[in-house]
Amino acid sequence: QVTLRESGPALVKPTQTLTLTCTFSGFSLSTSGMCVSWIRQPPGKALEWLALIDWDDDKYYSTSLKTRLTISKDTSKNQVVLTMTNMDPVDTATYYCARIHGAAAADYWGQGTLVTVSS
Amino acid sequence: QSALTQPPSASGSPGQSVTISCTGTSSDVGGYNYVSWYQQHPGKAPKLMIYEVSKRPSGVPDRFSGSKSGNTASLTVSGLQAEDEADYYCSSYAGSNVYVFGTGTKVTVL
Questions:
Q1: Closest-CA residue in chain B for A48?
Q2: Is the dihedral of CA A33, B69, B1, A48 positive or negative?
Q3: What residues of chain A lie within 8 A of the CB of B4, using their CB?
Q4: Is A61 exposed, middle or buried (0-12, 13-18, 19+ CB in 10 A)?
Q5: In the predicted model, is pLDDT for residue A112 greater than 80?
Q6: Does A54 score more than 90 pLDDT?
Q7: Of B45, B93, B103, which is closest to A109 when you measure between CB atoms?
Q8: What is the distance in angstroms between the CA of the first residue and the CA of the last residue of chain B?
Q9: Does the beta-carbon distance from A103 to B51 stay under 8 Å?
Q10: What is the least distance, in Å, from the CA of B71 to any CA of chain A?
Q11: Average pLDDT, chain A
Q12: How confident is the model over B33-84, as pLDDT tens digits?
């Protein structure tokens, strides 16, 4: 079955770079049409789409955050990595990775990982 | 891309129907038939309920239905049940593999 799991630090300091890893199983990111996306949700607030990487290694970013984000994949390890530079307390959120395939909808999600930005 | 606009809250009694709107622009909701809806219970990851405006994934009850008119999409939950109480988010494809989410709606079952 399809599963995704986010991992990374629970706490980062302001100005530091955050690196999150999404490890997935049950599908291959080398399959045509397959994508993995990162989405975040500040406590008590709405979901925000961050980035997407597709089977062809094309990368897409939120307009407002694109200067701070980098998404990459390691197909052999079934992993997608998101880095976000210059972290700020307003970036405190639960970060989710999700699969997008064909229908432009996230059909499988990880459980999310809470990242707190604080000195 | 700006967030899609949803009402902050909606409510209904058990057995009734509730409809949530999701308003965007011609660059997202109005431009593509790629609107999806997600249900999120407290402390849980979102769950896909509707994709491509009106299609239901396997396992989602047919009490959930979606539609779109112009730049506004809607989710209707018929025959409300206690377990439908949750936050609901719409999302739309906005071109060039960019996506946008809605502001979220808290549905309360009275």
A1: B101
A2: negative
A3: none
A4: buried
A5: yes
A6: yes
A7: B45
A8: 35
A9: yes
A10: 18
A11: 96
A12: 999 999 999 999 999 999 999 999 999 999 999 999 999 999 999 999 999 9
The pLDDT of residue A64? 93
Q: Which tokens belong to A108?
A: 């499988």
The tokens describing A60, both together, are 């897409």
Give the whole-angstrom CA distance, residue A104 versus residue A93: 24
Neighbours of A95 (CB within 10 A): 22
Measured distance CA(A74)–CA(A20) in Å, rounded = 13
Residue A65 phi, psi dihedral angles, 5° rounding: -120, 5
pLDDT at B97: 82
Q: Which candidate in A6, A24, A47, A55 is best for mutational testing of the B interface (most B CBs within 10 A)?
A: A47
Please give the Cα distance from B4 to A77 (Å, whole number).
35
Nearest-5° angle of CA B23, CA A109, CA B60? 65
